[in-house]
Structures are given as structure tokens and as C-alpha cells.
Amino acid sequence: MTTAGPADLTQNAVCVLACRDCGTRQTLDPVFCRNCGSTALAWVKIGGNGRIYATTTIHRAPTPAFRPLVPYTLALVDLEGGARIMGHCAPGLAIGNAVHATICDAAGVTLMRFVSAGETR
Amino acid sequence: MADPFIIGVGNTRFGRLDAVGPIELMAEAATAALDDAGLERGAIDGLLCGYATTLPHLMLSDVFAERFGLSLSYAHGVQLGGATGAAMLMLAGDLIRAGRCRTLLVVAGENRLSGQSRDQSIQTLAQVGQPEFEVRNGASVPAYYALLASRYMYETGTTEADLAELAVLMRAHAMLHDDAHLRAPITSDEVLASRPIATPLKLLDCCPISDGAVAMIVSADSGAGVRVRISGSGQAHLHQHISAMRDVRDTGAARSAACAFAEARRTLADVDYLAIYDSFTITLAMLLEEIGVVPPGHAGTAVRDGVFGAAGRYPLNLHGGLLSFGHSGVAGGLAHAAEAVRQLYGVAGARQVRDASCALVHGDGGVLSAHVSLVLERTA
């Protein structure tokens, strides 16, 4: 399914750029496919399953909007099928844990939030 | 082809310097560097200056040159985050080798602490992250480095206690420098008990925000006697954002250092002073280990073994680093090089090591994104 871009968040899905020529999913928003160099990249919505690559719990928020949320946990997640993405994360999870993407409303915006695989929140 | 020599160094005190703007701080450091070199302003034909978050300007170099009374044939600013200081020295060296300039002033400074709120500073710096994928989540520079830390500790077995050793070491070194921002002694237990910022990083794993400026004179005119030459330099840029970093043990630091060593025809074995960027304790551990000073996971043990003290095999950041001398932006990174130059000239006073003759300077900008390495050598 094609989509407008990374801000188009829905339950159990994440948006990434994918190569129309070779299918490779991209981390962030490169101009060229990291595998084949094609410029035919389009935003797609994929299932949000992956494993935690890195994680931290924030105790000092960078903006007033995030201050009521502290402590909150962020993670870098390696998605199934490629691509690494940053999102909020349920507390208590460790590197290597299987997770999937949900959404949450926080700091006045809708954010991606990874939870333990098999759980809904 | 002329060799580039660093012939003068100057700095302001670091810390809270109320009611002094970035240009005034830069001017104070530049005056001190000129005095140190025994030069008048008229001897300067080129200027490289860092950016100031408290004075964003399209052409800070010319603003500074006008205020400081310089007439120049070459000038511009450089922006490469924490690597800016090392990058300016590298470029100054290349401009001299190319014959473009004869004597350059390299300067940076700002009132990063007193000129804005902490929130403002943290938000400005957070923008090194990717806006839609990273910053939007309420991420910040400590968050990016904390994510790195979690992965690096997972892969190498580095512990929070190991990282704490680096914070304690930098503080012990800063205690011997009158101009350092933070000089009260700290213990490893105090580092471990300090309040969490972004786990596993705690307050004392993070550098402070400081006011301050540093300047250096780089010249083709070496004069007589002992001189410090920029013998080699190198860079590496493999990513900007932490999401795009491929390998926490191959961030570009080793590639950058290898390039500088090759140009200088030196190796790490020749080095007897280290000036390594330390925005966080994890930054310092990762850089030391990737460059190969110690094996992965061994930085803390090496501190305990005395490797990085003034009398150790690799004296490290004897001014106290960003973690304790202070971080006033670009000048914070230049301060590492300033101390290296003073050590090589043998004018570091109470901090002086015996017979320093070859220094490695390494700066990183972003999230271990931009790397710049310099090999500095004492020549008779």
C-alpha cells in the first residue's frame, strides 16, 4: 500500500521508503536505493514487526511538550524485511526483543510506539 | 610546498561568563593567540571561524574580522558540529600547503551557557537528528548518544562503571587547569549516582554547556626553535543520523585516524599524547576503542590502569575535555587541540607530560557522524 509519508501512522504498521525496482526497504529517506541505486523510491506501509537494536529511557525532555511524558522510552528497531526506524517503546524491553508497532497520542502528536510482540499496548 | 605550523594558542576561561557576547569572547582568545605567537593582527591573511548558536549569521567570519580589525585575503566560517575545530585546523594546514595563505587565525567561541536558556540550547542541538523520524519523537543529543551507548555496551560488555571512570579522569585533569569550567573532584560512585538523563547516561556522563572561546595561529612561517607541525590529517563521513549508522564499531573514527597517520607517516605507536572528543563518556570510550588505543570494551580498565594519566602511556585530554574543561560549542573541540599544542611546546605547567612529541587530535560531530583527525608533531 502506498502512503503519503512517515507521518501517516496507523496501528500495526510503519511507513518506509521502498525501491520499486529491487524491493529493498530503506532507512530514513535516501535519494538512491541503498541496494541498487535506483531513484524509484516510494513510501509504503508495511507490517511493524521487528527487533530492538538500541534503547534508552529519557528523563530530561528536550521540549516543554514532552516534559509531562518523562520518563519515556525510545528505541531503534530493525524491521522485518529491512530498514531501521526510531520510535517510542514500552518500558522494560531489551535489545533483541521482538516488538511490533502501535500508535499513541503524546505531546500533541501521534507517535509510533513499539510494544512487545503479541501485545497490543 | 610550505609546512603548516601552529605557532600560537589562546583561550578564555570556560564556564559562566555573564554579559560577554560571542564576538567579544572570540576577540579575547584571538588576542591571546596573537600574543602567544608574538604577532600583530596585520600578520594575519586568512581567517577560519566556527559558528555560534547564540549568534547565527550568514557570514560570521566577516563580522568578526570587521570587529577585530582584520584585512584579509581569505575568510569563511566552517560548520561541522563538534568536528569543526579539528576541521578548521585541517583546512588551515591545507591552505598553507597550497600557498593560498601565509598565516591564518582559527577561532571559535560563544556564550552558549549564559546567552540562551538550557532548553534553547538542547533544542538547537537536537536538530542534528532527522526531523521526521527522530526529533519528532522527543529525541535529543543525549538520547542519540544513549541509544548508541546501549548498543555499544551490549556488543562490547562495556559497563556504566567503565564509563564513570572516564568522567572521573576528565574531572581530575580539569582540576589542574585554572580555566576549566568544572573543577570540584568527583568519584565513580558519584557519577553512577548522578541523576539519569537518558539511560544509561547520567548527568555526570554528559558534558556541561559552557561559555568560552579558543583561538590558534597556523602559519607557514615557523621561525626558529621548537615548533608544532600539522603533519597529517584525515576525515571520514559515513552517516549523519543515528538511524543510518551501520555499525557502532565502525563509525568512521578509525578510517579518519588511519588517513591522518598515513599522511604523517606515523602510527599510533608513535603517539605520546591524545586529544579525543568527549561530549559524553560513551563518545570517548567508543573513539578510543575504534581508533585502537585500547581493545573494544577496555577503556574503563585502561583508566584504572593509569594508561590515560599524565604519567601513563597515552596521556589523554589533560585540560579536562568537554566533560570538565567545558563545552562552548566549536571552541570546546578546539580546546583539545589547544592543550595538545601546549603539551608539545612543553608549556602546560602543572599538567605537563614528559617529552610529548607526537599528538593525535580527533574530533567528532553529530552522532559520531563527522570525524576529523590530526597528527601534530614537535619539530626542533
Give me the secondary-structure topology.
The complex is a heterodimer of chains A (121) and B (380).
Chain A: E1 13-19, E2 25-26, E3 41-47, E4 49-58, E5 72-79, E6 84-89, E7 98-106, E8 109-116
Parallel strand pairs in A: 6-8
Antiparallel strand pairs in A: 1-2, 1-3, 4-5, 4-7, 5-6, 7-8
Chain B: E1 5-11, H1 22-37, E2 46-49, H2 60-68, E3 74-77, H3 84-97, E4 103-111, H4 118-126, H5 141-156, H6 160-174, H7 188-193, E5 196-198, E6 201-202, E7 211-219, E8 227-237, H8 253-264, E9 273-276, H9 281-291, H10 299-304, H11 321-325, H12 330-345, E10 358-365, E11 370-379
Parallel strand pairs in B: 2-3, 2-4, 9-10
Antiparallel strand pairs in B: 1-7, 1-8, 4-7, 5-6, 8-11, 10-11
Quick structural gist:
With 121 residues, chain A is mainly beta.
Tag the structure with descriptive keywords.
heterodimer; A: 121 residues; mainly beta; OB fold (Dihydrolipoamide Acetyltransferase, E2P); 5-stranded mixed barrel; 8 strands; B: 380 residues; alpha/beta; Peroxisomal Thiolase, Chain A, domain 1; 9-stranded mixed beta sheet
What would you say this structure looks like, in words?
The complex is a heterodimer of chains A (121) and B (380). With 121 residues, chain A is an all-beta fold. Helices cover 0% and strands 47% of the residues of chain A. Chain A has a five-stranded mixed barrel. A three-stranded antiparallel β-sheet of chain A has the order 2-1-3, with no helix packed on it. Chain A is globular and about 45 Å long. With 380 residues, chain B is α/β, with parallel strands linked by helices. Chain B has a domain at 5-115 and 210-219: Peroxisomal Thiolase, Chain A, domain 1. Chain B is 36% helix and 19% strand. Chain B is built from twelve helices and eleven strands. In chain B, the strands form two sheets. In chain B, strands 3-2-4-7-1-8-11-10-9 form a nine-stranded mixed β-sheet, sandwiched between helices. In chain B, strands 5-6 form a two-stranded antiparallel ribbon. At the A-B interface, strand 4, strand 5, strand 6 and strand 8 of A face helix 4, helix 5 and strand 5 of B.
